[in-house]
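Closing statement on the zinc ion sub-project.
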Amino acid sequence: MSTFYNNIPIEDLPSKGRLYREDAFFRIKILSIGDIKYLETNNDIDIIYKDILQKNLETNVPIDDILIDDRNYMIVFLKINSFTNSQTEIKTQCPYCGYMNEELHSLDELDIKYIEDTYANDGYKRRINLTYMAVELRYPTIGNYNRVEGEFADIYKYTDIVSDISNMDAYDYMTLQTAVDEFKIGFQEDFLQTCGQCRNDYNVKVVVDYNTLLKGVDIMLVYRNILGICKYCGYQINDDMSYRDYMSYLDIVNKMIEEEKEKEKSNSKNSMESSSFISLKNNIANMKNMIKQS
Ligand SMILES: [Zn+2]
């Protein structure tokens, strides 16, 4: 069931594959029911995503060498292609007229910033000289990802700084932050929203939360539905089936049940009609008898 691989064109990746071997390829399988269960029972997102890629990715690049921004692209690819509905509602307030705009947006609307070949001569690294030290910017990989959340997340992500940078000189900090902003690649977190009321455009910041991106499926409900499908049509769904196929099955079975209910309803309506018809016929016969008798 759905064991085919989707090709991810190398030029589509934020890194355009520039840091991999020349013949690098990536083919990925969308999430199975087993993957969905695994995602819901584990919490460390970096470990989970590595495991998911190890299982679902066909590639000639070692998993640890894949850039985090390319990994994130693949995770969003899985999100868009594994679920039948990957749209999310984004509520924003218009700064011009105060109107609340509620719109469905899909992750594939987000722009991607690609790697710039101006860094090619330096091996896609960049050296920034600060007052007392030099910092090297580099694209983090699954193997050397310096994961820190919060205000300075991007600086930690794209450098090998491990010391506390909250005490850094303001000028150095600005220099470094600007350099990192220029250097970073991947999904751009803002897009243009047109107000439904005053038609003005304004910028909306969307934060893609990779911690929850593939999560949120009610596993107990999945178990229940799998049993329901089996009970209804005798089809045994296993963990290898893609989540998308399972959703289609569920949709079909629900429609079949709905149709059967409708049929039952109209059947009982028909029998009601015919019974009232019979009683009417009886009444006429009775009336005729009564007339005859009189
Ligand atoms: Zn407006």
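Residues 276-280 have pLDDT under 50 and may be disordered. With this model delivered, the sub-project is considered complete and its resources will be redirected to Aim 3.
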